[in-house]
Each structure stands twice: as C-alpha cells, then as structure tokens.
Design a protein that fits this description.
8% of the residues lie in helices and 63% in strands. The protein is mainly β and 288 residues long.
Length: 288
C-alpha cells in the first residue's frame, strides 16, 4: 500500500481536471427555466361539422413552459415541456351566433443545439404533442358540439440571440412546432355523437400528416432580464387545418404574450454548488 500511494498521487497530478471533478469543484449545474404566461388575441374559426360560415372573435390562454439542459450532454441537448389551456368565443358575420372553444394542448420536445458567434444559438429536434378540445354552437339542435382530439409527433427548433438592449440583458427567441405524423379524431360528416355513444365507433380515427392535418405554431419571445426575474413579451401565431370524412376545419389565432420567467436550481439532498460550478442554461447565456 505504501508503494501504491506515490503512484496514485502522481496520476492525480497528471490529470488535474479529473481530480477537480472528483471533489466537486468542476460540477455542472443545470438550472430549470420556468415561464408562466398569459396570451390574448384574435381567433378565426371554421368547422363545417357545425356550420359552413367563418366565425371571428377573441381567444385567451394560460400557458406554462419548462426548459432544462439534459444531464447526459448539457452543452448540446435541451428539453422543453409546455402546456396551454385556451378559451375563446367567435361570432358569425351577422353577429347572431357564437362558437365557444375550449382547448388543452400539452407537448414535449428534445432538441440538439449549437452555439454560434455573436450570441446566437440554433437548435433542432423532435416534438410529441397532444390536443383535446371542443367547439360548442348552441343554435345547432342535433349537433351542438364538435370534439377535437389528436396525438402527433413532429419537428421543432429554436433560433436564439442573447445580447443587450442598452444596458439591459435581452434574449430573443423564435420557435416553430410542426406536427408531421400521428392520429386524430373525426366523425363522418352527418354522424351524430349520439350514434357514437350507441356504439358506432368505425372510422373515427384518422392517420395524420401535413396533407390532411396541418398545424404550425409560431412563438416569438423577448425576455428582458431584471435581476433574478425576467419579463417576457411575445407574439404567437398558430395556423391549423384538418380535413377528414368531408369535414373541413380551419383555425387561425394571433395572440400577444405576457409572462414571467425564472431560473431555479433543483439539488439532491447532500449535493451542493461550489464557486467553480459550471452553470449551463437551457435558453440564456451559459455562465462559468
């Protein structure tokens, strides 16, 4: 044992980086970014199961976003989890009928990213999303509601710039989400939901691809960093279109985004952050 001790000390001196990692002085800290947002704007709806007319009105949403660099490769991989609960009301051109819309949409994404000069970051990856909601038109006696449900996989990405607006740190981001394949629910053109309730379940699920199920969710955000809390201003435009069993659905929304974002650390019991820890953020500038 006495002969092995000098050899071990010599190896540690040759690999100082490994020794630092062993005593915790080169640990990686991955803060969790949480964003709470309110969205409000206009909505334009057409659902031929309910009516052939186009309806226009307002739409509002409560949304949440969670992002974190991945443990297995925090410099290159980032995870995003988000969910949105929306409520809207649209009227026909004459203003004599209203379609109410309620919708919940969670999704999860994994992206590979790379840093570019000038504070820019690009990322691309995959997305899994679900959508469940309902449109309600009270003036339709037999068919007052139209249900929406889908489960899709698709592509997503980010273009991020971290810089300054004068002396104020600023983060700009553009993120699109595009479903590419999956399944969605749609009854026949003249099929009542009461018939489905009685057991007519044939032909309700349809394969989804951009030719019959197109959804492009565009999110543009500007994060203004005021100390530990960040103010988020943004704009969301979502274009949705589906066609199955003779039923055509169109939905376009424009919304202003207002939110608060924070970064917080999730540490296991007994673990600690040291002054030499590397902080790798999922969206903002990485810190030494």
């Amino acid at each position: 044992m006495k002969r092995l001790l000098p050899i071990i000390l010599a190896l540690l001196s040759v690999f100082p980086g490994e020794a630092a990692a062993a005593d915790g002085r080169d640990t990686v800290v991955r803060p969790v970014l949480s964003a709470y947002m309110i969205e409000a704007g206009s909505a334009h709806v057409c659902d031929t199961y309910l009516t052939p007319l186009h309806y226009s009105g307002w739409n509002t949403s409560l949304s949440y976003e969670r992002m974190q660099a991945m443990k297995f490769d925090p410099e290159r991989w980032v995870m995003r989890l988000d969910g949105r609960l929306s409520l809207g009301a649209t009227e026909n051109p004459a203003g004599t009928a209203t379609i109410w819309q309620l919708d919940f949409r969670p999704s999860w994404s994994m992206m590979w990213r790379t840093s570019l000069p000038g504070g820019f970051t690009l990322a691309a990856g995959g997305n899994i999303g679900a959508d469940i909601g309902v449109l309600y038109l009270s003036r339709n006696g037999n068919n007052p509601a139209s249900v929406r449900a889908s489960l899709t996989v698709g592509a997503t990405g980010m273009a991020v710039w971290n810089g300054r607006l004068g002396r104020l740190p600023l983060t700009l981001r553009y993120q699109p989400v595009l479903p590419l394949a999956g399944a969605f629910f749609s009854p026949d053109y003249d099929e009542l939901y009461y018939e489905i309730y009685l057991g007519n379940h044939k032909g309700l699920a349809h394969a989804a691809w951009p030719g019959n199920f197109f959804r492009l969710d565009n999110l543009l955000t500007a994060d203004l960093h005021f100390g530990a809390t960040t103010l988020r201003l943004g704009y969301r435009c979502e274009v949705f279109s589906s066609k199955a069993s003779g039923i055509v659905t169109r939905n376009v929304t424009h919304a202003f985004v207002l939110g608060i974002t924070t970064e917080w650390l999730s540490l296991r019991a007994g673990s600690r952050r040291t002054p030499d820890s590397r902080i790798i953020s999922s969206l903002y500038l990485n810190k030494p």
